[in-house]
Amino acid sequence: MIEIFGASNVTNKQVDLYPYSYDMTENESHMPDFVVIPENNDQLVQLIKFCNQFIIPIIPYTTGNNVGGLTIPDYGGIIVDFGKKMNKILHIDDNMMYALVEPGVTFGQLKKHLEENYPHLRYSYPNAPPYAGIMGNALLSGMTNLGAKIGSMADGLNGLEVITADGDIVRIGSCFYGESEAELDSWWCRYPMPDLLGLFVNWQGTTGLVTKCSVQLWPKEPIEKPQLVLFFGLTDVGPFLREVGRAEVVNDVAAFSVEVAKMEVGIPEPTRYPGEPPYTAVVPISAKTEKQMEAKLEIFKNVIDDLNKKGTNIQSIDYYEFSKLFNLKARNIYDLPSQILSLHEYSGLTWFGAYAPSHKFEELIERTDELYHKHGIPPFNYLKIMKGGHYGIFRPIFRFKKFTDQEKIVKLVDEIADVCIELGCIPYKTPSWITTKLRKKINPGWLRLFEKIKSCMDPNNIFNPGRWNT
Amino acid sequence: MVQVDDDLFGKAFLEMAFDRCIKCSTCKYSYKEFEPSCPSGEKFLFESYWASGRIRTIRGLINGDLEWSEDLKDPIFACTTCGACIDSCNAPHADYIVDMIEALRELAVKHIGSAENQEFLISRCEESCNPYGEPNSDNIELKKKFNLPDKAEWVYYIGCTSNYRQQNLRDSTIRFLKKAGINFTLIDEHCCTSPMIRTGQIGIVNDYMNYNIAQIKNTGASKVITSCAGCYKTIKRDFKRFGGEYDFEVYHTVELVKQLLDEGKITFKSEYNKTITYHDPCHLGRHMGIYEIPREIYKQIPGLKLVEMKRNRNFAWCCGAGGGVKIGYPDWAVEVSSERLKEAKETGATVVSSTCPFCRTNLSDANKNYNFEFEVLDLMEIIDQVDIELIS
Q1: Are B255 and B124 part of one and the same domain?
Q2: Contact assignment for A344 to B29 by CB distance below 8 Å
Q3: Residue-wise burial string across A85-117, b where 16 or more C-beta atoms lie within 10 A, e elsewhere
Q4: Full residue range of the structural domain in which residue B50 is found
Q5: Could you say which of B203, B238, B259 is where a domain stops?
Q6: Residue where a domain stops, chosen among B206, B230, B259
Q7: Which residues of chain A are within 8 Å of residue B53 when distances are taken between CB atoms?
Q8: Of B15, B18, B20, B25, which to mutate for an interface test with A (greatest number of A Cβ within 10 Å)?
Q9: Cβ(A161)–Cβ(A175) under 8 Å?
Q10: What interface predicted TM-score (ipTM) does this complex get?
Q11: Of A65, A343, A346, which has the smallest distance from its Cβ to B25's Cβ?
Q12: What's the average pLDDT block by block, 10 residues per block, for chain A (470 residues)?
């Protein structure tokens, strides 16, 4: 390892390995055998060849914020910490609006770079800490605050550079021309060749080491008028998400149980009092001109009025006006990427994060609500509508004290997972123990194909073994 | 909950580490500025060298996942305790991260000893009451030189770095106090114990604290002033934590200067025609919340142009000297400082100024080692070069 990476970039000291042995979730800790900090592809090619020769697991790591235990080395091996040196923004293409980044680039880093150098462009940001990695989130189909427009982070991928199990360096997307390094301005599109990105997206680091990634950027619209929406009926948020999604006027909808929303603005106790709405949503809306904004707000208001005529009780207010009541940190719900106040309260955080059929939102809310009450835990649901209303996100999320409350929370997540999978939800950033449940429901043909591809891509199962129960 | 040794001063902070921190890494960036903020993590890179890693190390050591070994020393002691993580993190435990690290050091000293050379902080004090190992100055000669009384309203607590390494800063401060008509005296000081608290070697803290408090009380003073950010934090904050009983007020020199300016008792009469950039000492800024007072003083000096570095106030990059790093990791301490001076260079300033003798020392060392060609001066040394009119 020292020969490949240099002494200061390799450690097997227990104290250094220990922080890589766990994450914020309930997933069991496992110590790696080494942590290495790579600087270039040559080192990684050597590492992969070495690990294949001796059947040693390799676990890619950027910042470990995936909330799924996905960088915990379940079978030991070598953690490849991309976050520390392979963290450069290689190119911003103003013309075709994309960023070419190394694996360790974070949301905060890209946001700062764009604001300072390309203020007319923006990326999409999740409700994640600013130090979370862009590439990891894109490869795991994470969320964005442009979700209602563009879908998941993975939908905005233009191309990848990957080192495969045999040490080959592969470029996918429009950057695929040529034998040597791709031109920086060639990473502009994912199509129309066979979509080989699918071999690496959502595989949780089990099919190769991704070393470059091109992500789409968008024009930063100058006028923003986010709205705060209150839902006074338990399931009113369901039809709202569906209708507002297809209205195509909002960038995103981040709907929370009110208990979460209250904590976001600094109210510590997750309690809903009589008369308070069970759900709230922050809805970013942006426009190029005031006139366009007026039209969007009119359509947005019409959606709410039409729903209320049918029996819902939904109210919206200007989010900027509302947020003046609170401090700067509270306003960060909107100003992403940001540390989300309520979620880092203790030592643990977990979720059942799932893509969801949006016509099942009401049933998901009602059935999980029963479970919350059964376990005496306040509702912590988080919902989104994606890509013009084509699908939804349903994500119960929990902060907890790892050393005292974990058992209780895991039991609840376990039951919630059963209900959600039964209703057709598909988890993402999936911890191994939920994958076990998932595999029982997936059709055998899909599983056989999946296993065949995995075996082909990684014959010695050295890439992040244990994920997807491989 | 695990059991933590009751004898440990930092017991509560070690316990706090157990159910706090999800390792979200927000501590690695200045909040909303997205600038690197942690000198230790940026240098050593592995997760064990960032605040969240150190919190995890506490857990591992107390619950037995980690065994004590020499390997632990660098991750525990190679940290300036600058508190940048405190200002970056937004979790409820944020304000206590440095307390947790100091508690971890206390635990480490008990099991594996201090980092290399940090033990001299104690042995030198045992010989001469200061961590530099210089013959103890009881300050009697200084009192004679400046004609200071035995009893006074104020005590100027010089601090070891000013008294043994930055004597121009010390003398500038004394001259200012004289010019401003402050009724003050000096005491036979023992080290304030800041270096010991920062490095987990707290065995002598109570004795030294009580000695210093007694010396101050003997003068009849109701106010103590110091020109050292480290002494200021220690006397004002840590003495209380360690049970020190006193009722005198504690001032940093900048607070007195500002007060005199605000009350119209002094004005700066001559010009200081240089461009300066101000380095916020961690112990005065992040730890004690004083950012604007020194800036307001600089701005009142005729001719002086104050320019800001990219990272300033609570996001200021540490000078690299604190937390025992200057003695334990001297080369790295200067390396950290050189990064600060690179940033200072971008401002076009010719003078780098601070309000802490320890920052002044380390910035001066980097200035010399890396040939930056700045003038490095404390604010009090700049004021010493300006005519002051006392308005009665």
Answers
A1: yes
A2: no
A3: bbbebebbbeeebbbbbbbbbbbbbbbbbbeee
A4: 11-111
A5: B259
A6: B259
A7: 18-19
A8: B25
A9: yes
A10: 0.95
A11: A65
A12: 97 98 95 98 98 97 92 97 98 98 96 97 92 95 96 97 97 94 96 96 96 98 96 98 98 93 76 92 96 98 98 96 77 75 83 97 98 94 97 94 92 97 96 94 96 97 92
